[in-house]
Write a structure and sequence with these properties.
Elements (H helix, E strand, L loop, with lengths): L8 E4 L2 E4 L23 E4 L7 E4 L9 H17 L1 E4 L2 E8 L5 E9 L2 E5 L2 E4 L10 E5 L2 E8 L6 H10 L3 E5 L9 H8 L5 E5 L1 H15 L9
Parallel strand pairs: 11-12
Antiparallel strand pairs: 1-2, 3-4, 5-8, 6-7, 9-10, 10-11, 12-13
InterPro entries: CoiA-like_N (IPR057253)
Protein name: Competence protein CoiA-like N-terminal domain-containing protein
Keywords: Plasmid
Length: 225
């Protein structure tokens, strides 16, 4: 069976290896890499014309998730290796109507976002009861859960569980990135605060409550222009 799936990452010795990190001597079936999804052997296709890539060994049944799973695992490995995370924009948004029925929306930036924030510690796939995040990082005394989303995103039920615990959680959205990306491309996407979103942050809720109190003490009147 011929398989044309072009997989950028393989696994060797429990580490993600990009096709560009191999030597010519490791092409074909000599890379020692397996598929990130199904863990069957991969061939390193390293010709002189087309872009290099991994593919399932000829004669094996290909799986559908090798490419996306490889990117997902490589992104987690990158965060753990660098001991850095992107910090998303954090803001409190207040929507409501004044005494005359006019709708108002105001926002207050709590933190403007940062592409790279050094952290003190990272744990991969550490279970917290019924929650198993991709990573747990510690920034001083603050614990933050990090989810890397390529095909699977946090759903409402999981978000509710996180909110009930008051657990800080960030999701990094890699759903639309190119599948044939290089390690440098991946690093640029992972450490981009505009791809990161707060799923839960108790500080946002506290700031919003304070913002509501401040706003309610001010009298709003419509203006004529």
């Amino acid at each position: 069976m011929r398989n044309s799936a072009k997989i950028p990452y393989g696994i060797r010795n429990n580490r993600l290896v990009h096709i560009s990190q191999l030597t010519r001597a490791e092409r074909g079936g000599r890379s020692g890499c397996v598929c990130p999804e199904c863990r069957t052997p991969l061939e390193a296709r390293m010709g002189d014309i087309v872009r290099h890539y991994f593919a399932h060994t000829r004669g094996t049944r290909p799986c559908a998730g090798g490419t996306e799973t490889g990117i997902h695992l490589a992104a987690k490995q990158l965060i753990a290796d660098r001991k850095e995370i992107p910090i998303p924009l954090l803001q409190a948004v207040l929507e409501g109507k004044d005494s005359l029925g006019y709708k108002h929306t105001e926002s207050k930036v709590i933190f403007p976002g940062r592409d790279r924030q050094a952290v003190d510690d990272t744990k991969l796939e550490f279970s917290l009861g019924d929650i198993r995040p991709d990573l747990i990082v510690n920034l001083g005394q603050i614990e933050i859960l990090v989810e890397v989303a390529v095909t699977h995103f946090i759903d409402a039920e999981k978000q509710q569980r996180l909110e009930s615990r008051g657990q800080r959680c960030i999701e990094i959205d890699l759903g639309d990135i190119p599948r044939n990306l290089t390690p440098a491309d991946l690093e640029e996407h992972v450490f981009n605060y505009q791809r990161a979103y707060w799923i839960v942050n108790p500080r946002s809720k506290r700031s919003r409550q304070s913002y509501v109190q401040d706003s309610s003490s001010r009298s709003r009147r419509p203006t004529n222009e």
